[in-house]
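tool_call predict_complex ligand=cytidine-5'-monophosphate
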Amino acid sequence: SGKINIAIDGPAGAGKSTIARRVAGMLSYIYVDTGAMYRAATWYFQQLGIEPEDEEKVLQTVPNLVIELIPGEDGQRVSVNGQEATEEIRSLAVNAQVSRYAQIEGLRGRLVSLQRQMALRKGVVMDGRDIGTTVLPDAEVKVFMTASVEERARRRYKEMKERDQITLDQLIRDIDERDRLDREREISPLRQAEDAVLLDTTNMTPDEVAEAIVSMCRTYV
Ligand code: C5P
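tool_result ok
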């Protein structure tokens, strides 16, 4: 039996990355965090002082954008054009603007083609917003992960470095706003693919969720 691709989509803070990483570990597959790529691009544009409204400048920069996801001891490292940005891409400044840059078609085109290249040889667990619908429409297993917005905010809050600078209520509003932008954008909005399995993880442990997804793969691997 050969390798397959697994697509995991859903709103912010649903636990996609924790689960995708775990499933990849269980199957000895490669984990690709596409949100980290949009975050890395956002961080880079912010460094250059290029606003999301300035589409022309964004599009001039896109062809030179090199984003690398490097597997490391304590998780994945992220670099943009050779600059390490692993911690920076999780900042509140990036959170606040990533969904605005992510609306830009030319940027999405570039990142989607990098993502497809990573999945060519199969054996990939990829998480994001448009993996099942746009990036890997032929993925053998597709999951749409959700949880209540309160639970999602709690999960995000726990993994945040700047907890002292934001309240849980503010984080709920941030997440709601990001989901709204991601759902309402024109190009590849966040939505469940027709052939994706809906998984509400509000009352599930990470072990249970990972096990459920690995079971879906059993017919293939
Ligand atoms: O997954 P994460 O919350 O880190 O993603 C950050 C943002 O990147 C999302 O809110 C969304 O705007 C964008 N994104 C996207 N398409 C993806 C992954 C992330 O538009 N496949």
